[in-house]
Amino acid sequence: MKSFLSNLGYFLKEAGRIVRMNLLSNIFSFLGTGLVMFILGMIISGWWIGSQMIEMLQEEAEISAYFSENSDRDEVQRLVEKIKAIDGVWQVRLVEEEEAYSRMEDVLGEEAHILELFDDNPFEAFIEVRIHLDKMEEILEKVSALDGIEHVRDNKGVLQRLQSITNALKALGLLAIAAVGITTLVIVSHMIRQGIYNNREQISTLKLLGAPGSFIGFPYILVGLMLTLGGGILAVALISFVISRGYDMVSVSLPFIPLPSGKVLVTDLTRLLLAISAFLGIAGSLFGLSSTRDAEGSV
Amino acid sequence: MIEAKGVSLRYKDGTLALHNVNLEIKPGELVYITGPSGSGKTSLLKLFMGVEYPTSGALKVLGQAMFRREAMKIRKLRRKIGPVFQDFRLIEGRTAMENVMMGMRFLGIPSRQIKQNAISALARVGLEHKAYSRVENLSWGEAQRVSIARAVARKPALILADEPTGNLDHANALNILDLLTSFKDKNTTVIITTHATHLIEDQKNATFVRVNKGNISIERRCESNEELLI
């Protein structure tokens, strides 16, 4: 360990020299790795956003029960009590026409002036029922069957669609991870093999002098790490920019979409991408080093 | 130090490079391996370095049995050897100092000590003024001295020099031989291969291993120049 630390400067210098020996190829490898990582990051962020949106929507799983316009307050109150008694319901409240109107104003934001086109309040009063999602089917059945309930609206369809998109993104994410992994491993191991070939005489001399494989190979592992971590940092920079712009656009044009915190998303993605980059850099280098074992100049 | 019993070396193409070599070299000896080109001198050094392995017989270098299956241990053994290669094998793009230091970086020597050893080794070969010159800018003789400095800076138990006098004029060849033999002490064995026997004919206190068509004969000369043929 002591010997390793005292040689750290030498290892870094060697890694820099190996990169410079084949500068153009290394620059393209770095850019290629960065773009591949960027694609991976975008797919993962889509998957995360979708999953978190579903979680948020599931927490707010609710149905709206609409009753007959002729029902008086006592009848509505009785309906509220009956719904409260259903298993799986955890909150019931009556939303008056004015509150429904005001909620829509909040949702529409700057576009709320559209509501002024109506002479009267177009919204009906309804009973808002917060439920446990897993009991949605039974609750829907029981609420619909109550006397005085005209129709029931739920967000099950939205949740199911979101769920299927997220599942598709998840599958795509796994495929992307595999594709990125293989591509990066091939790029890095190829660059390492090329570096070893370019330095075969030096490697051969070091072996004759008794240098251990770890001493000869460590600069190449550093090169792999520099390539993939550099690519990872480039990807993180691009993703931060895209997510920040994307959030700005969504929050203005689609304010009712419940997005997870952009800061947390970027932080988590940064950690994940840098960890994947470091892993692939080391794995690719080791693969490159091991694949030259029987070749001239092998480590 | 080195013990060879019935060692033979046959290359993959079928060439018999060494045949039934029996040899014992003790610590602190100066050994010249002589013979014409292609006689098997370099093959003998390759066996001592663990670059080739005996196809039959038993060879021990610094107590290490030289078998292919011991490759990892043999790589460690090389750390106790100071090789001076025929083609120097200096690493281009680096200074003389960097080349000498590189041979010590994996020996567990503290950084400061590595630098001190390198400076004193370069001084010993008369090249301290070229320490920071790139090796590709050095003359043939200077490059050879850097190669010697790299070998001795490691303070090896065994110095193996392969044809260090090749391509040198008489005076420079003698200088290089004097330099190499000056590193011999009770703990350091020096083995030099050369085909220029005229350079060493007056040498005393040394062992001469003559190689001819893969067979060897050994002559030991003591201080009084008395010859002892084995």
TrEMBL record, chain A:
Check the record and name the InterPro entries matching this protein. Answer: FtsX, FtsX_ECD
User: Where's it found, cell-wise?
Assistant: Cell membrane
- The answer to keyword Cell division applying to this record is yes
User: What are the residue boundaries of the FtsX extracellular domain, all occurrences included?
Assistant: 62-152
Membrane-spanning intervals of the chain: 27-49, 171-192, 218-243, 264-289
One Gene Ontology term of the biological-process aspect is: cell division
Example GO CC term: the record gives: plasma membrane
What is the purpose of this protein?
Part of the ABC transporter FtsEX involved in asymmetric cellular division facilitating the initiation of sporulation.
Task: Tell me which family the UniProt entry assigns to this protein.
Answer: Belongs to the ABC-4 integral membrane protein family. FtsX subfamily.
| UniProt protein name | Cell division protein FtsX
Q: Which organism is it from?
A: Clostridium thermosuccinogenes
